[in-house]
Design a protein that fits this description.
- This protein is α+β, with helices and mostly antiparallel strands.
- The chain has a single domain, classed as Pdz3 Domain.
- The protein contains 4 helices and 7 strands.
- Strands 1, 2, 3, 4, 5, 6 and 7 form a 7-stranded mixed sheet that branches.
- Strand 4 and strand 5 form a beta hairpin.
- The longest helix has 11 residues.
- The radius of gyration is 15 Å and the shape is globular.
- The chain starts with a helix and ends in a 5-residue tail after the last strand.
Length: 158
């Protein structure tokens, strides 16, 4: 399943964001094609772990519809022409982004250690989380770097 997720990103013309393994890169045995796109996890970063029921996450994805949040580029300098960080806005209550612990004005830095080169890559990453067991998103909130780690668990059978 993880190879399917990685191949889906390549087919979309993006990088393989959905590796599934936290901090382990793509699932293929070869090195990633775009090695400069991998972001090493900075030391002493605050980590926050979430256990999300898969059923709740899938329900939130279905309810989101055609109104994903806005991702606005954050530029390092005025002269900079490229940005690989995006500030997130317009999060709706009950959205999959809220379940992931994201808040308005968070800055998205990386997903599963991969830089986000275009806003649609992050939205696709979130959509593809429905088939992942683990994932991680690096953000900055209030100037503090955080690594949000996720475990997707099946619903409890009664």
């Amino acid at each position: 399943m993880k190879k399917v997720l990685a191949l889906a990103f390549v087919a979309l013309g993006s990088i393989a964001l959905g590796s599934g393994a936290l901090g382990c890169g793509p699932t293929s045995p070869s090195q990633p094609k775009f090695i400069e796109d991998i972001r090493p996890i900075p030391p002493a970063m605050k980590e926050v772990s979430f256990a999300i029921q898969r059923k709740d996450f899938e329900h939130a994805l279905e309810q989101e519809g055609e109104a994903p949040p806005r991702l606005v580029p954050v530029f390092a300098t005025v002269a900079s022409r490229e940005s690989y960080e995006y500030r997130i806005f317009d999060l709706k209550p009950g959205s999959p982004y809220e379940l992931l612990g994201l808040q308005n004005s968070d800055i998205i830095v990386a997903a599963n250690r991969y830089l986000i080169k275009r806003p649609d890559q992050f939205q696709t990453f979130v959509q593809l989380l429905r088939v992942e067991n683990e994932a991680a998103i690096e953000i900055r909130r209030g100037g503090e770097a955080r690594l949000l780690k996720y475990s997707f668990v099946p619903a409890i059978q009664r």
